[in-house]
Amino acid sequence: MDVIDIANERAQRELDGLLAARRQMARLEAENATAAAECVECGETIPEARRRALPGVRLCIHCAEAAERRARMGV
Questions:
Q1: What pLDDT, on the 0 to 100 scale, is given for residue 24?
Q2: CA-based radius of gyration for the chain
Q3: Residue pair 72/17 in contact by the 8 Å Cβ criterion
Q4: Cα–Cα distances in angstroms (integers) from residue 72 to residues 5, 28, 49, in the given order
Q5: What is the pTM of this model?
Q6: How far is CA 54 from the centre of its chain?
Q7: Which stretches of the chain are DSSP H helices?
Q8: Number of compact structural domains in the chain
Q9: How high does pLDDT run on average in the chain?
């Protein structure tokens, strides 16, 4: 295996993680079209601006970022 193959595999893993995170976010949004006032993970209030910008949002920004990191790492 050469350097290019290794780089391609790494890039593919990153893309797979990003796609998994997007699928998870879409699934969470589809579960309930009404935005949650509180994060379903930590219970913190989700700011109204975020709820308006992302209809159906269920996670605060911190939990959403953590979910994306986990998805990228394949957890």
A1: 87
A2: 15
A3: yes
A4: 19, 17, 26
A5: 0.52
A6: 12
A7: 3-31, 48-53, 61-73
A8: 1
A9: 87
Region 50-73: mean pLDDT is 90
Give the residue from 48, 49, 46, 75 showing the smallest Cα distance to 61.
46
Neighbours of 17 (CB within 10 A): 18
pLDDT at 34: 63
Q: Which burial class, exposed, middle or buried, applies to 55 when counting CB atoms under 10 A from its CB (0-12, 13-18, 19+)?
A: exposed
72: which 2 tokens?
């990228």
For the beta carbon of residue 35, count every other beta carbon within 10 angstroms. 17
The residue segments making up the domain with residue 40 are 3-73
* 46 secondary structure, DSSP code: P
Stretch 9-31: mean pLDDT, rounded? 86
* C-alpha span between 56 and 4 (Å, rounded): 41
Predicted confidence at residue 67, as pLDDT, reads 93
Task: Match 């893309």 to its residue by tokens.
Answer: 15
